[in-house]
Structure formats: structure tokens, C-alpha cells
Specification:
Elements (H helix, E strand, L loop, with lengths): L1 H24 L15 E4 L2 E4 L4 E7 L2 E6 L5 H10 L6 E3 L4 E4 L5 H38 L5 H34 L2
Antiparallel strand pairs: 1-2, 3-4, 4-6, 5-6
Helix pairs in contact: 1-3, 1-4, 3-4
Length: about 180
């Protein structure tokens, strides 16, 4: 029982780490990256779809993203989605492809992005703590129903706390790496 709870909790922590990595991949740095736009929702054929499902996205240079829609009729829609996003990049098109020139970030914008990174890391930490509380509550319920002993409860709580500490350290590490990437000129 304890092992079931801790292994389920461990799986939730891995998902939280992956979710943070995925979120931070969309944070703009001074370099172009297809991750900035590939999951951007675009209204296509009556439903929102991620951009990478309706176009090819390539990064030929350090500061340029080229988007080539599979259907040229989608160019205006994709352009509109990019303009409405919080990227702060103006798209230009030649009728076949959309080019996004990633400008150099100002110091002020870098600081705003770092605040955003810290905020996202903190949100994931809160979710991890909530998951920890739920897992411990589950163990306490098992102990209350006499399904596990008090010793097993304490060992389970210690294991959950160890997993939580390890995960939070990893979250902070991921956040610091992204901050350094954003602040690098």
C-alpha cells in the first residue's frame, strides 16, 4: 500500500518536472527556437490546433524562425495567431512562408521574463506541495483504517518528503538554468 502511494506520487512528480520543462521551453530568450511557436494554438478548419500540426517550423539562423504552412491559405490565420500571442514578434510573409525575426532582448524585458520564469517555477512547487499533502493524507487514511501500521505511515511520510525535496531541488535547478539562458546576452 505504501509503495503504491509513493510510486504514484513519484509519477506525479515526474509529470510536474516535464510540465515545467515544457512551459519554460516557450519562454523567449535571445535565440530563436521552434519551441517558442510549435504549440501555439491556431484557429484552423474550425478548431484550434497547435502550429506544428499545420506547418513546418525551421530555425535556419540563430535569430530567425521560418514557418511554412502545409496549406498556403493558412498564412493570414497563422500571422494573426502570432500577433495575438505574447511573443512580441511581428511576423512577415512572402505569400509562401512566414518569417519571425527574433529581436535582441532589452535588459528590462529580460528581467520581466526572469520574473515569469520564477513565477512558473513557484506555481509548479505549489502543485508539488499539494500533491505531497494528498499523498500523505492518503497514507493517514490507510493508517486510520488499520490497513497499514503507524511505522509504515512514518516511513511512507519520510519517503514522500525525500521525493518532494529532491523534486523541488530539481525544479529550482531547471528554473536557474532558464534564468541564466534568458539573462545571457
Amino acid at each position: 500500500m505504501v509503495n503504491d502511494v509513493t510510486s504514484e506520487y513519484e509519477g506525479q512528480l515526474k509529470k510536474a518536472l516535464e510540465a515545467l520543462r515544457h512551459q519554460l521551453a516557450t519562454v523567449r530568450t535571445g535565440r530563436a527556437s521552434s519551441a517558442l511557436v510549435e504549440h501555439m494554438p491556431v484557429e484552423a478548419y474550425g478548431a484550434p490546433m497547435p502550429l506544428n500540426q499545420i506547418a513546418t517550423i525551421v530555425v535556419p539562423e540563430a535569430r530567425l524562425i521560418v514557418i511554412q504552412p502545409f496549406d498556403n491559405g493558412m498564412i493570414k490565420t497563422i500571422e494573426k495567431a502570432i500577433q495575438n500571442s505574447d511573443l512580441g514578434i511581428n511576423p512577415s510573409n512572402d505569400g509562401r512562408v512566414i518569417r519571425l525575426a527574433v529581436p535582441q532582448l532589452t535588459e528590462e524585458r529580460r528581467r520581466e521574463l526572469v520574473k515569469g520564469v520564477r513565477h512558473r517555477v513557484e506555481e509548479v512547487k505549489v502543485s508539488v506541495r499539494n500533491q505531497r499533502r494528498d499523498a500523505i493524507d492518503q497514507l493517514k487514511e490507510f493508517e486510520h483504517e488499520k490497513m497499514i501500521s503507524e511505522d509504515e505511515l512514518h516511513r511512507g511520510q519520510e519517503r514522500i518528503q525525500q521525493l518532494t525535496d529532491k523534486c523541488i531541488a530539481e525544479l529550482e535547478h531547471i528554473g536557474k538554468e532558464k534564468e541564466a539562458e534568458v539573462l545571457a546576452v
